[in-house]
Design goal:
Largest sheet: none
Distance between the termini: 17 Å
Helix content: over 70%
Oligomer: single chain
Strand content: under 5%
Radius of gyration: 14 Å
Number of helices: 2
Structural class: mainly alpha
Number of strands: 0
Length: 60
């Protein structure tokens, strides 16, 4: 499950980067902000998955 979440987070990060670039090119601050928010969300998911992995290593 962890790998699946990481893949989704990576996809969301890429989507956010693309949306931010589109916002930069078109001059749309809303797209820029939404793209940045998606990147932050993806980063948060990666942090959670890293913590899960560390906890699992400690338990095992």
């Amino acid at each position: 499950m962890s790998l699946e979440n990481r893949i989704k987070a990576t996809a969301k990060n890429i989507e956010g980067k693309v949306q931010e670039v589109v916002g930069n090119v078109t001059g749309d601050p809303e797209d820029q902000a939404e793209g940045q928010a998606k990147q932050v969300e993806a980063s948060g998911i990666h942090v959670v998955e890293n913590v899960k992995d560390q906890v699992k290593k400690i338990i095992d």
